[in-house]
């Protein structure tokens, strides 16, 4: 696969007209600068050397004033074009980042800190402004105007032209050396900022937990360490900027001094120059060096922006790589399973390697074939030799804490990819299906479902697609047992709740999550101990809602309650990451001592 062009190259291709306009305006600006110097030298020659009357130079001064106004307008126009390019580039990059995050695969979404992603989407994209608003216009000016000035300098006084030509390369050479260091420092700066943002947001979201466990002071020190690291990196960039400015000023002053000395010798000692020529050259030389100096400053800002753009590009590349690997696996799975489906008469519509198979029928059959998963080398490993889940079955996953129940649920749901083996849905590998189409058929309700800042109705509507009515939302709330709660609220379903469900109890959050599922009506419903920690009354309400919701769906739940276990069609018993046995409640009681012991402990403790 060919490597995609860089993000900057993509942006440049979108601004061809703007760059052409910059080139034309820079050319006009160069002509205006030379014309201004020529007119000013002529005016000074006539007034102070030739002692001409003021009336005779009024026209010349008027033209000079017009040229100066034109130069100002052209400089302003260059700046406006740069700002327009920057605004469009930032809008495009931010849209690309948001689109990338929105369409990222579920597995890539689980990686990284939220604060770091927010930092890239906001701060890093904003920092890219300087590249387009300052760096590009200055570099375009530097590519055209100094050449025009050099041509005039050589035609008027060759020695000055050679001095400019010999001293000018020191400025871009120094710019390159400093720019490389600046780019590296800038990338380090945004890495530090992403770390700081991630640490700060994580700490803010878990502040209550940190206080309860007495870790607030330690986390405060961690935030302080991250903040100081960001400060030090920023100050390092400023140090480079100040050094850059000092060196550029030194080179410029030295260059102007050499030219002025040479002009003075030629004018006063050898009398080989006229005053008009010497003054014209002396006016153009500071313009020449000023352009290069401003380019050096813009180059520094541009390299800083390039570091920020590199962070954006890196995030896009990382996500795209994950998606590309996923697509490659899908194509391989399609090719591998094509012959099998022809022989077995699969119930799916045929598809080419570039199309996703259709998810029919629903609810589907789900099979795990010699599936293994490991989070990292030398870490916890899950092993499931063979699991078959028929359409509409109610499956319970049981076992001690840390036995791999939730990991198995994640594999079945498609949140995690197996390290080896396959998860088959209707006889086809799960990851050959379109991810969006698959998750349209799945609801996953955890112990702590996430509630967004907004009204109850808005949070329920998240669980469905478009074209839903208020009546649909109200019906879903009633079926989930949430209507009894909203009836006591002054604004009902329009009651506002805080981020993370602030203002709602655990049971109310679970009912809201169930209401989302009732509105969605999925074919597969996954529960991760949804009733743990709830009071008996609330648990019974939720159990009735769950029973109603799962009448026409496959239900897979991580269960602890004996009631839930006994009602299951099949029970999967996990121990130390391995599937030990599966079967009905009665079957496991007879043949699996570990299961019998677990049931005995629950009966003794009254957990029914």
UniProtKB/TrEMBL annotation:
Residues 20-304 form the ABC transmembrane type-1 domain. CDD domains: ABC_6TM_AarD_CydD (cd18584). The chain crosses the membrane at residues 53-74, 139-156, 162-180, 240-261. Its main location: membrane. The keyword Heme does not apply. It is a multi-pass membrane protein. Keywords: ATP-binding, Membrane, Nucleotide-binding, Transmembrane, Transmembrane helix. The keyword Transmembrane applies. It comes from the Bacteria. It is found in: Cell membrane. This is ATP-binding cassette subfamily C protein CydD. It comes from Paenibacillus tundrae. The lineage of its organism: Bacteria, Bacillati, Bacillota, Bacilli, Bacillales.
